[in-house]
Amino acid sequence: MKSIAAVTVAAMLAGVTFAGTAPAAYAQAAAPQAAAQAAMKPNPTGMPSVTSIDALYSGKSWIWSDGAAYFSPNRKFVAWAGSGKDVSYVQGTWWVSPIGWVCFQGMWHANGPSGRNSTCFSHRMGPEQVMYQRKEPGGDWYVFKHAQMMTGDEYAKFKNGDLASAGMMKAKQELKAIRAVSARN
């Protein structure tokens, strides 16, 4: 499976413009349950508070299959993904909107051109205090977090603390080395 950043970079190299939003690859990484839950088509309508959403993200790392992101309490956002020629990293900011969206933006750096990207996920409450999430604009709703954490909740991939910055720095150095070799050739 390609990393989020690898797909992002491939799309940028192909000349695709995301008009201020991140590519669909983000939804793939963030919504592994979407296909299984597609038949249910939930329609959550309750709005979680900005404070409750902020508490879910602030000071946490979101662990991906090939990288991680960190949402610092001071609103800085760092992430890395991939390895080798597919390594990439981002440094940017994140925020919670009054309408229940968590957004992060920054400049992705990869082997090739870099590009600014913004990604937003909206959050809604459903029955039995189940929080749903979807990538905006218009992704499918999927379970983000049950009131009592369950196996398969996307939120189970969130861990306390910064588990992304060291990987981001390593990715930055790896990318620098790749570019140095490319420049010599």
Q: In words, what does this structure look like?
A:
By secondary structure, this protein is of the alpha+beta class. The chain has one domain. Helices cover 26% and strands 32% of the residues. It has five helices and nine strands. The protein has helices at residues 4-13, 25-30, 34-37, 50-57, 165-184; strands spanning 60-64, 67-71, 76-81, 88-96, 101-110, 115-125, 131-136, 142-145, 158-160. Strands 8-7-6-5-4-3-2-1-9 form a nine-stranded antiparallel sheet. Strand 5 (101-110) and strand 6 (115-125) form a beta hairpin. It is elongated and about 60 Å long. It starts with a helix and ends with a helix. Mean pLDDT is 81; it is low at 1-32 and 34-39.
What characteristics describe this protein?
alpha+beta; elongated
How many β strands by DSSP? 9
Can you summarize the main beta sheet? 9 strands, antiparallel
Spatial ordering of strands, largest sheet: 8-7-6-5-4-3-2-1-9
What's the tally of helices? 5
Low-confidence stretches: 1-32, 34-39
Give the topology, please.
Blueprint: H1 4-13, H2 25-30, H3 34-37, H4 50-57, E1 60-64, E2 67-71, E3 76-81, E4 88-96, E5 101-110, E6 115-125, E7 131-136, E8 142-145, E9 158-160, H5 165-184
